[in-house]
Design a protein that fits this description.
Length: 267
């Protein structure tokens, strides 16, 4: 979960509607040996709900040249909306900004799990978790009511043959991603049923998407070196992202950057 922002059905639908279907990516899970429900795909036992593979939909993380915490510029997987120079989110405060991004630190606190802020504190020092009290967690979907709203069930396991290894490598095709996104948007909250007509309509819309973020993700993937390698000679984010239409971020010296200076959680 540390490297995926799970989106709700309504958020996924909004990304698709706004032309950003090409930034979405699914995630399935390998079932634990004692799992009550699993289905085999490509020889792997995958977590399932009622015999249907379970999955999240989140945001793509192409390799970008980033410089976290004073280290050298390095090729690292980063959110499709992250400005690799300021390390700020290009849609922070926008209507598309995912609820999980806003609430994630608080969710960790509510679940008694080490937060990202605390992990950074351990590695680099300084106080980054500004408030250790868990906030309201009304957006934390867990249990049966998450089905069809945040956790989705793929209706045809046999159609996923060949996708497990592709997903592990990060090599899903546009058609693969569109199929999962279609199922997510076509899902019925509280159920594993899907609206087939809506699934097909969404798949078509996703395959037609050519957003600045999606095309920039493809460009970064083509330009990148090996993840973890030095990226000193990489092009800057402005040429790859802003040049394709990305909104610029304010930078850390701008007090007008709403939400960062006043945030309860800095991690």
């Amino acid at each position: 979960m540390y490297n995926l922002v799970p989106l709700t059905r309504d958020e996924i639908a909004a990304f698709v509607r706004d032309g950003f279907g090409d930034v979405l990516v699914p995630r399935m899970w390998e079932a634990t040996p004692d799992a009550d429900a699993a289905v085999e795909i490509d020889g792997v036992e995958v977590a399932a709900i009622g015999g249907k593979p379970a999955f999240f939909v989140g945001l793509r993380k192409p390799p970008k040249p980033v410089t976290p915490f004073g280290t050298e510029q390095t090729w690292l997987h980063a959110c499709v909306f992250l400005d690799p120079e300021t390390l700020q989110c290009r849609i922070h405060g926008d209507e598309m900004y995912p609820s999980e991004c806003r609430d994630y630190p608080g969710h960790n606190l509510a679940l008694g799990t080490e937060s990202e802020c605390e992990r950074v504190e351990e590695e680099f020092g300084d106080d980054r978790l500004l408030d250790g009290d868990a906030p309201d967690v009304s957006g934390l979907l867990l249990g049966p009511h998450a089905v069809g709203s945040k956790v989705f069930a793929y209706p045809d396991p046999e159609a996923l043959a060949g996708t497990v290894e592709q997903m592990r490598r990060g090599d899903l095709t546009d058609a693969d991603r569109a199929a999962f996104v279609g199922v997510a948007v076509g899902s019925r909250p509280g159920s594993t049923d899907v609206d087939t007509a809506r699934v097909e309509a969404v798949k078509t819309t996703v395959l037609e998407a050519e957003s600045w973020a999606g095309t920039a993700a493809e460009a970064w993937t083509e330009l990148s070196g090996v993840v973890g390698d030095d990226a000193a000679d990489a092009p800057d984010g402005a040429s790859v992202e802003v040049g394709r239409g990305a909104p610029e971020t304010a930078g850390w010296d701008d007090a007008e950057y709403s939400g960062w200076d006043d945030a309860e959680y800095s991690g």
